[in-house]
Amino acid sequence: MSNPKEIKRRILSTESVIKTTEAMKMISIVELRKTKKSLEKVRNYLDSIKSIFFDLLLIENKKNIEKNQFFSKKGKIKLFIVFTSDRGLCGTFNSLIFSKINSLFKREEKLHNECLFFPIGKKGFDFLCKNKKYNIYDQNWIESNLFYKKVQFLVSELIFNFLKRKFSSIYLIYNHLKKSFLQEVVIEKFLPIDFKNFRKKTLEFSYILEPSQEEIINFIIPKFLNTKLLKIFFESIIAEHTSRMISMHKATENASDLKQDLILNYNKERQTAITKEILEIISGLESLN
């Protein structure tokens, strides 16, 4: 049996763990609420700009769209932008993405030389550095705490390199939160834009365009891509905080159960020590008699 002093020390240590995990859980809840509000605003803006953008594409001649450099694909090099977290203690949030990457490229080993990875988040950067078979586009990683100006700069750089034909296509790998707190790893094409997904829509309004349709489309596309990337970033952040909230809640429950077991053991040891002392006193009195 353990020493009561040692058990008491472990109880105090467990109480400290409970306070820490409970605090981290509350922080994740607050950040989750803020991010959900931001995501709702971005979604509303994206829906509006997407509606205008799709209508312009329907007006445009299909041949002209196929000639547009934002819709065409040339070359072999593919860029994968991986959204991960900077910190751990978020359950399977990062491991799901790493497993998806490993399973995807395990089947297609020949793709390693045709693919580059751009990590957003320190955990993704560490994973790609440890696995030398994955080629990193930039040896500097971007913090997962993005904001609109950073997104604008990142998208402008991606568009510039895409138009220079450094990449044939750009994909986004991120966690999407489904119902019942289930996460799903999504691989979504970012560039080139797939016009086939828009052709089923019917045009609701007629537009008078000035100065020209092509210039307006080229003006809207960066804004559309900025908002789309920002939306996916917020979705990834929501999945991260949800995973961390659930992990910290389970850790708090486990620590509380452990504390109750330790208290029970402490009381047993204390009762055993008291009983032993009483028996020693009684045996001493009997020996005097």
What's the β-strand tally?
Answer: 4
What's the CATH C level of the largest domain?
Alpha Beta
Q: Strand sequence of the main sheet, in spatial order?
A: 2-1-3-4
By CATH, the superfamily of the largest domain comes out as ATP synthase, F1 complex, gamma subunit
Can you name the CATH architecture of the largest domain? Answer: 3-Layer(aba) Sandwich
Structure annotation, total helices: 6
Summarize the biggest pleated sheet: 4 strands, mixed
Spell the H/E element sequence: HHEHEHHEEH
First-last Cα distance: 34 Å
Rg calculated over all Cα atoms = 29 Å
Class computed from helices, strands and strand pairing: alpha/beta
Question: Please, could you describe this protein's structure?
Answer:
With 289 residues, the chain is an alpha/beta fold. It folds into two domains: 4-21 and 248-288, Helix Hairpins (Orthogonal Bundle); 33-244, Pyruvate Kinase, Chain: A, domain 1 (3-Layer(aba) Sandwich). It has six helices and four strands; from the N terminus they run ααβαβααββα. A four-stranded mixed sheet has the order 2-1-3-4. A hairpin with a 5-residue loop joins β3 (169-177) and β4. α1 (4-59) runs antiparallel to α6 and α5 crosses α6. The longest helix is centred in the last third of the chain and has 76 residues, at 213-288. The two termini are 34 Å apart. It is found in: Cell membrane; Membrane.
